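Throughout this chapter, every protein is written as a compact record of paired, labelled lines. The reader may check this reading against the record printed directly beneath this paragraph:
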Amino acid sequence: MDKLLANADACVKCGLCLPHCPTYTHSHDENESPRGRIALIQAWANQQLATSEKLVEHIDNCLLCRSCERVCPAVVPYGRLIDNFRSHLYVESDASFALSLMKKVASNKPWQNITHAGLKLYQTTPLQKIARLLSLPKLFRLEKIDRLLPDYVAPVSLESSYYATTAHVKGNVGLFVGCMGTLLDQETIRAAISVLTTVGFNVYLPEQQTCCGALALHDGDGANAAQLAEVNHRAFKELPLDVILTIASGCGSQLQDHMPAEFSGKVADISQFLAQSTNQLGELLKPLPATVCLHTPCSLKNAMRAEQGALKLLQHIPDINIASLPNTLLCCGSAGSYMLEHAKMAQLLLNDLLDAALASDQPDYLVSSNIGCALHIAAGLKERGITLEVLHPITLIARQLK
């Protein structure tokens, strides 16, 4: 509580954060702004404001995009402040069924195996179509998860936990794949291994690694997040690694902010790392005469501060045309479990992004460095009846390898 108050008291209420806050921009409600939320937390911590449903609602409406942190002259650790507040009020039974299910699958290997089998049955038979016709996902309060499911791809077991480079050795990297990547985006994992080994890096992929803990932490479940952090620390600590690379910026920001220094100091976004580590990549890539819309996740921009990595990496592809989204565009609305818990605001923000991405000619690809954002954006495109592939930058690079 002392740390919570100290962090909150650092805010001078200048208001520079207001135009950068997605919820304030849409609501124009001071309670839905960073300084408004900090004022509410201060009043609560000083026992001037009772715990209430309305108080919790205003705090929980925050996406934790951390855009406010980037422009804050007082350097208020807003993300930690919100997580701290939520931890004080955390009650496991308060989580929605969809969020509880996601947390269970994210942190439990047996549950992931069961989910793999369930998705295969659901998506490769008429079951999904029938379920949607009968509105069963809504009946079981799973419609928000159902909309996010990509087309089913049969999982291919990774052959080992170590992949040797096929070129001159530049170093050893650990690959953190995250829970959702393992479950829903194995192409990105394979693409990362392929590109890294091609340009000179040995890749370690420890089987013991687990969820980064972001879902639990942002739900207020600090104890679970700490347990997951310890598992990941043990999984990587004995390996001879120069760097630990993430393929999801949400995981990367979590690992950088909440792991021991000897671990967090090695964490980097894969696109940023490759952009800084390889000068001759363009010679290994086939031309791609296509327009690529580049989405930069909040976690990559505001937390990891590595927003230029994907752009610089993709620029290695000959003949590519990269169309970046406007700098004025705020969060896409995914924000971990936010799109499940706050669907209305998430949809408003997603519409802003899709309108900007499709404002002129439709691009050939849309790339994003965070799987949650990618799933959210892909679902929005599908709901608009638009066929546009959404993929990770490293996947596009891997596809262009000669």
Remarks:
- The chain has four domains: 2-89, 94-146, 162-276, 282-399.
- DSSP finds 24 helices and nine strands in the chain.
- The longest strand covers residues 171-176.
